[in-house]
Amino acid sequence: MTEHTHNDAIRRNSLREAALEEMAKFERRESEFRRKDRAERAADLRLPLDEIQVH
Description:
Elements: H1 2-44
């Protein structure tokens, strides 16, 4: 029974690590998307991007 519990813990940790890695990838893609979107909108409005403060 202890071995079964240990295997479950290993599987959960593996799944947790995979989920955290996927979340980090998503956050990087989302951040890049927002940066590009902000730059495109600034260009469309002819606003200098370096003067726009994002909070």
